[in-house]
Amino acid sequence: MKQVLSRSGAYIYATVMFIFGIQHFMYAGFVATLVPGWIPFHLFWVYFTAVALMAAAVSIYVNLYAQWGCFLLGCMIWVFILTIHIPLLINSHFDAGKITNAMKDTGLASCAFILAALYERES
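Given the sequence above, the corresponding structure tokens read:
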């Protein structure tokens, strides 16, 4: 039962990441505005992130390098927390919506690391 639940959860998580990747392509112009100004080539990073999200999802779906895919996904999301969310929180006097987004990404990164640990046990 535990194996079925963890595998189902992994597939649901992968589906969410894949959809986020598609949305990065669909709304690239808007997402580019979220990239900090000190980082050059905003659209490149939006597309890179889209491909990375989708690649991590595919690695989970086909169970090929899934541990690495999950670990790198968690690291990428933590980079977002450090470069986007924390500066926004500091500069916005802790706006509730910004806190929610930061906590959402913290949860998504944590799930990626948990999945990486689960895949490590399987190998």
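The chain has one domain: 2-122. Try to locate this feature in the token string yourself.
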